[in-house]
Structure formats: structure tokens, C-alpha cells
Records
---
Amino acid sequence: MIQRLKKRWLDWLLILAFALGLHYLAMALHLLMESGSFSFGQLGSLIAGRLMEPGDATRYIDVAQHGYVTQGENMINLVFYPLYPLLMRWLGWLTFSLPLAGVIISHVGYGIASILLYELILLDGDRRQAWDGVLLMALYPFSMFALGVFTEGLFLALSIGCLYALRKRNFLAAGIVGFLAAMTRTQGMLLFFPAVYEWVTLRFGPKKEKLHWRNAFLLLIPVGFGVYLCINAALWGNCFQFLKFEAGEPWYQSTQWVGANIAQHFSMGQNYPGLAWIIYYAQIVLYFWVLAVLAYGVYKKERMAYLLYGGVYLGFSYLSGWMISGGRYMLCCVPVYIILAKLKDGPARRFLLLGAGMLFVLYSLLYLRGYAIM
């Protein structure tokens, strides 16, 4: 028992070193290519410049510092869910730096997510498959976002944690973690779909397990989204005020059918060729790639709860009009890693890992060089 526990801890430490180290190797490569040298001072400047400032990072920092406001230009920051900036605020009291607090939360979240993904795949597979899952998530071309002042690292930990708890039929833990996920991102409420499926199969399956009071904790997942709606109502008198802000400048987000959005991405790629393969065409390729992986999962009879979550996650994410962050959003489509991790050792698996590695290096370097990768 002690030897097995030691081995488990060793695996976890190796996972943390690998998952985080891979990204820092990309940063070191960037510095060597840019200046021909590497130092920890340069690395610190790179982290401050590329992990703490780009995109919406400054808006998360503003919410952490001032909360939601109802006047001025920052009132539109209501579109950002409360858990991540709240954790930044609390940790900021210790670090005396909100950006640093955000980076620490993301690093810890991504590290925990990598360990949980390993353990989740290990429940139905072997160690090689579990390691492949961790490797594929680390090599996802846009995975650098998981370490910066964005919600990806935290959301990955919470969503995988919820799926792990559901797989173990621990509905109490699944409800609590799912509640936190729904307080982190809109897609968090989608965890309610696999949660209901797992409960239904348990309740009406062959064993027909009796109702238990712990099952009611699954309702905490939509409650998390409800809390965010209550914040909207308390501040603006409208539960869906965040949708009005999303529809305006600078996001111009509206709900459109997936087909219309795909056509729009293609049109934007033609109009802005410099951004085509960084944003617009990349989002189109990602959509059909994830769709194909989920279809392969159906063929291989993957667990229906994972397929259900992957399907609703993909469909919901691509309902967003004028989407420019599809690559970042799909980082958290966890079922893709679970399905692909179970490829048999052979040419297809090796080609997948090689292709993922090449794209990871390419998009990581583009991101670190300041290209408009959202």
C-alpha cells in the first residue's frame, strides 16, 4: 500500500513537471530565438508581458480589484464570471499583486487538471493511455492560455474534477465542484448534462439504486449559473444583462446557428488573411476536428457521459457569433483528450502526437511573439 502510494505521488510529480515544463520550454525557445540568450530575468519579463496582460487579462484584474461596477467604461466587465477574479482578490492579499495571483491560480489549476485527467483516464484505461491524455492536453496548440490570467486553467481543474466525481458516482463532490465551474465560465453549467445522465443510468439502470439525499447536490451545478444571474439582477435589474454587454463593443457576441457562424468565420478569414490561420480558419478546422473525434468516440463506444458533455460543449461554444476565441474555448473540451488517449500504439497515434507537437510549438511561439491569438 505504501509503495503504491509513493508510486502515485511520483506519477503526480512527473505530470506536474512535464505539463508545466513543456510550456516553459516553449518560452525558453522563444527567448533564444528572439535574443539568442536566456535568463530568468528575461523569463520573468516574458511572463509579465504575455501571461499577465494580453486580451481580457486586464479586465479580470480590474474585476478582482474593483468588483463589478455600474458606471463608467468598465461596467461591461460584468460579462466575466465571478469565481476567478474573486480568487485573484483573495490570493492578491498574500502576493500583493493581482496579476501574479491570477498566474498562480492558473498554474495550480492547470497542474491539478493534468493530474485529474490522468486519474480519470486511468479509471477505464492503462498508464500509457493516461499519460497520452496528459500529453495531448499539454500539446493542444492554444494551451498556453491555461497558464495566463484567463479562466482556462481553473476551469479545466473544475470541469475535469466534476467529471471524475461523476465517474466515481460521488454526486456530492460533483455538485460542489460543478457549482464552482458554473461560477467560472458559461460552459460550466453544461456539466449538468453528464450529471443528469449519470444519475438517470444509476437510478433506472440494472441495479436501480434508490434515491439518496446526496443526489440532490447535482442541482448545485445550475445553481452556480443562477448565482451569476442573480448578480446581474441585483446590479442591473436584469438577469441577462451580461448578454447585452456581450453584444456590444468590443466583443459583438450574439447567438447564431452553428452553420451561420462557420460561414462567418470563413468570410472573415477571406477579409483578413493575416488572421485567417491564426483565428478564423483555425476555428473552422477545430470545429470539424472535434466533431470527428466525438464521432470516433461514438464508434469506439466511449462513455456516453463524456460524449454528451463533449457534444453540448462543442455546440454551445460555436453558437457564439463573431467568435475570435474558439481555439481558447476548445482547450477545455476535455472529452477530446479522453477519446484520443485511447488510440492504440501505432502510426495513427504517433502521427497525432507529432502533429500536435508541431502545432503546439508554432502557435505557442506566435502567441509569445504577440500575434493576435485570442
Note: The longest helix spans residues 2-35.
---
Amino acid sequence: MKKHIKNNVFWVGKVDWELRKFHGDELSTHKGSSYNSYLIREEKTVLIDTVWLPFAKEFVDNLATEIDLNEIDYIIANHGEVDHSGALCELMKHIPDTPIYCTSNAVKSLKGQYHCDWNFKTVKTGDKLDIGSGKELIFVEMAMLHWPDSMATYMTGDNILFSNDAFGQHLATEALYNDRVDQGDLFNESVKYFANILNPFNPMLRRKLDEIIALNLPIEIIATSHGVIWRDNPMQIVEKYVQWAHDYQENQITVIYDTMWNGTKLLAEKIAEGIGQADRDVVVKVYNLAKSDANDLITEVFKSKTVVIGSPTMANNVLHSVAGFMHLMKQLKFKGKKAAAFGCYGWSGESVKLINESMANAGFEVISEGYRNPWNPDADAQEAAVDFGRTVAAM
């Protein structure tokens, strides 16, 4: 169970190979995840975070084989969400008076979830905790990365930033470190994590990243709460976050649609064809919502400069899959991106207008009235869709 990280610091978490959904059913985790807990054994023994509730008893039993639980002097709760704090109830049965260091908002969170009045010690940015051997823990509030109660903990001497949810990813691995996993998997999961969880908080995130950099702390290891520990050039993920937090986009246009009798599907393919004809350098991707993972599509939206949304008209409206996805895009507060709409209809044809309204309401710049076609697209309609794609590429 215990894995050595550096000097007297150890990983004591849980790898969850089977996890496929997170935050209820809101987030897909195709490659599992981990719940990273850390044990520091200096003159004082410190436990940083725990694991998700389903693994609480396993976690405490395993921890008890490594140390006498009564030797734990301090517990650090960087974040109150249940995937980090879930084993606290089981642990505190054994050591009920052990002080728990956390933010004042984390006290509200932990009391609200577990209804226990433990020995809380509230901290704020810059507060320090002496753990002996000339080393200290320095606390840094990280509000909205990604909850109001979040914080990070920096360990002097070993120069480790225990960053909690910041800089993590949902990736199950026994390899533990960033330089020992597939780099494609690592960065794909890192950008997906950012796009689906942290993107709404970009303005606050930018300020917090500036604050972390301004502290000028030597950081040799970033020990996250999910996925790998960054030990090889750990600041590379901080640099990525700075880039991603500034309304990120690549030279990509993504076409996303749902369809009933494949007319809107045919339009999607022809629009993509026109985009590719007009701009040989742009990356064009096409996805059927009904056959794609919504969180993977959000990652593609995050990377895109323009998103083209299609739906046939159904009961004077858009398909519910498209309506739900547009709601998700609004929730994630994308900035600096363009949008266009298309769709087939048989009778009334409101879908394109409704998509335009929804995308504008979600913060996208709507660049066209869109393209709507009655019934199944014939050869002329298909060519018109190609022309529409060329127009989108040029805007």
C-alpha cells in the first residue's frame, strides 16, 4: 500500500481502476482514477487527505498496518469533498481528538456532510505548522479550485506542493509519477479535467496562479489528489494551467449534432467538407452527440475556436440531447469562442433559431443566421451545406 515519495513522505492512497463515472454521472472517467493521500513522518506525523467513502474502511485498515493510528499528530483536509474526506469518519473513530487543519469553509463542508464536530483548526494563506526537523507546512487557500473550501499545502525542506484537485487528472496508475505514464494519456486526461471542472472559474484561477507563482516557492514535486504526482519538471502543468485559463483555443472547428433520419447528419458531414476545403490548416472534427461521450465533447469544445451545432426540429424545438449539451456548455462558461447552427426540418423549422439563441446565451459569438434545410437534403442542399461550411471557416 505505502509508496515512498521523498525522504519521509509517502503515498497511502487508493487506485480505483473501475471508476467510470464521477460527480454522480456528470463526469466520465474512462481510465479510472486515484484518491491520493499522503503520510509525512517527521518529528510530527501528518496525514494529508484521505480517500473516497467506499474505500474508507480499507484505507483505515491499511493505514493501521503502516503506523499506530495514535501516532498521527495532525490531519490536513485540503478539501471537504467526499472523494478526499470520505474516510475521515472511519478514521476519527480511532483518533477522535486529533486536530484537523483546514479552511473555515472546509469546516462548514465537513460538518455539513458528516455532522461531526471534530477538533478543527482553521487556517488561511500564509499560516504555518511546524512538523519538526526544521520543516514546516505552509497553507495556501485555493478557493474555487474547485470548491470554496479548497486549499493547498506546501512542505518546506522537501519542496512539495500538495495541490489537492489542482493539476490533477482522472487516471488510474500504479506508476505514480508523471514521467512513468503514457504522455498522451496524461495530457489528454489533464485537459479533459480542466475543461470539464475548472474552466468556469478561469478569472479566479488566473489570479490564484499568479499568486502561487509570486510566492516564489521552490517546487520540486506537485502531489495531486487524483492521478499522477508531478516530479519531472513539475511546473510544466502549472504553465499549462496558465495557458488553459486564458480562454484557450486551438485552430480547430468542431461540428456537433444529433439527428433523427440522418438528414442533419448528412448536413454535418457536408459542412465539415466545406470547412476543410476553405482552410487546409484547420482541424475539423465531427461528432454525433447520441454516439459520443459528452465530457469528451466538452474537451473538444474547449480546444475549438468555433463550434457548429446541429439539430433537426422536433415538436417546434431542438432534440433534448442538443438542448442538454448547450446547457452544459453554458454551465462551463466558455469565452472567446464562435458558434453557428444548422438543421433539417419537415414542417416548422425552429431549431436553428433556437440554437442561435441558446449559444448566444451561453456566451458564444454567433457568426451566422445558420443553415436550415427542409426535408432530406438533395444534391443542391448538400452543396449549399458545403458552401455554409466554407463561410464558417472564413469567419
Note: The two ends are 55 Å apart (CA to CA).
